Amino acid sequence: MVPITDKSSTDRMTFDGDYTARFAAQLNRLKSENRYRHFVELERIAGRHPVARRHHDGEVREVTVWCSNDYLGMGQHPDVIAAMRDAAGTWGAGAGGTRNISGTSHALVALEAELAALHGKERALTFTSGYVANEASLAALAAQLPDVLILSDAMNHASIISGIRMARVEKAIFRHNDVAHLESLLAEQPRERAKIIVFESVYSMDGDTGPIAEIAALARQYNALTYLDEVHAVGMYGAEGGGIAQLRGLQGEIDVIQGTLGKAYGAAGGYIAASDLICDTVRSHGSGFIFTTAMPPATAAAAHAAIRHLRASGAERAAQQRQAKRLKEAARAAGIPILEGDTHIVPVMVGDAAATTRICRLLLDEHGIYVQPINYPTVPRGTERLRLTPGPYHTDAMIDRLVTALREVTDRVMTEDPDVEAAQ
After folding, report:
1. Mean pLDDT for the chain?
2. Quick check: 56 and 41 in contact, CB under 8 A?
3. Of 333, 329, 378, 334, which Cα lies nearest the Cα of 357?
4. Structural Rg of the chain based on CA atoms
5. Which residue, 242, 230, 270, is CA-closest to 137?
6. 373-374 β-sheet, strand order
7. Which residues are bridge partners to 64 per DSSP?
8. Cis (ω within 30 of 0) for the bond into 377?
9. Does pLDDT of 178 surpass 90?
10. Cα separation of 393 and 47, whole Å?
């Protein structure tokens, strides 16, 4: 993940007072660089994941979605739908207020207890999204620690970067998954100085995993707190879906585990799981927690049902891993360049923003295959890619169609002038 840099002073000085022209120019700049985000209107079909209906120019046609974060299709699981429906019928649609002012529902308290048990922690705290969970938690924890240093992996994603910025404390960036570099940074600091190491278990753009055991050992050696983002791993790995830390038997080595309810659990919201003291600190000082309307009971109930199911069932995880392996094998056999990772994420490398956008458009328009282009600033320039997320309900036939279409479209686009084609 590449952070969006601040605008230069020269750029700020060029404003001539015309707001409309300024906004238009900046949007046109994004479009010319193939960084403008086009939203595809989809209508998900309960019971038919990953098939959806695409609404475009007054027409509706079915497409196969290959970039969903509903990794296991739990958003359409009958138990999850029933839990949401029953909760809405019993308690209504909204939460009614912030957590402090009438918004702490029984459904939410039960969900937090389930999350704490899942991760083997004393307590869990929920937020309206995983993004808010990172922002609020990192800023709140850092604010309570004098002269704290946050050490962050260079590939940490936007919500972590935002949380560190909100904290307004000193930070140090260590090279991605480079334990030696991290240790050199830690060794420069007095042992008594407060330090928080922030990293991820699954990096969503490359599909690789973090060295959790090694970082936890360094944290013990140099007296640092560990903050592990497991948003792309919870539900997906471990005997109960607790994530990579659970898979590797390391949950007890991590101080704060952060996760989401909007990916493998198919609902919405985010959370942290930690000691009672850490959760209470965030609960008492995190503005993104204190001043936001609480998660609705129906959403909490749906997430709770998904977590309970995936703690008891490994069938979805096994099927997903089988199909991810099959897609990787088929892509390699077809000569499609993928990044080799040990997770469910399959990045297809293109290396050109215009070509990536063009490939995705042709896949959608001609083959009914929906993949979103991943361009700068989400990834560094020159590493533009497609990000495929095969799931348990992607059939072998779907995989074969995807690989065939991707090979044909990629060959065509790479022999065209992508700058001209993408602009059409």
Report:
1. 94
2. yes
3. 378
4. 22
5. 270
6. 346-349, 385-388, 373-374
7. 51, 369
8. yes
9. yes
10. 10
CA distances from residue 274 to 136, 227, 283, 287 in whole angstroms, order as listed: 15, 10, 12, 18
Distance separating alpha carbons of residues 375 and 356, to the nearest angstrom: 8
Q: Which long-range contacts (CB under 8 A, 24 or more apart) does 283-286 make?
A: 283/99, 283/125, 284/140, 285/140, 285/143, 285/144, 286/136, 286/137, 286/139, 286/140
Could you tell me which of 339, 195, 196 has the C-alpha nearest to residue 258?
A: 196
Predicted TM-score (pTM) of this structure: 0.93
The tokens of 218 are what? 């360094």
State yes or no: is 121 an active-site residue.
no
308 token code pair:
């309970």
Report how far apart, in Å, the C-alpha atoms of 59 and of each of 25, 53, 305, 358, 386 are.
31, 10, 35, 21, 26
The two structure tokens encoding residue 357: 């956008």
d(CA 318, CA 299): 26
The half-sphere exposure of 403 on its side-chain side, counting CA atoms within 13 A, is 23
**Structure-derived torsion over alpha carbons of residues 375, 380, 382, 384, reported in degrees to the nearest 10:** -30
* Catalytic residue (one of 7, 121, 171, 263): 263
DSSP secondary structure, 221-249, as one string? HHT-EEEEE-TTTTTTSSTTS--HHHHTT
Give the mean model confidence (pLDDT) for residues 245-256.
98
| Residue corresponding to tokens 């690989």 | 403
pLDDT class of 13 with cuts at 50, 70, 90: low
Residue in this structure with the two tokens 């074969």, named with its chain if needed = 400
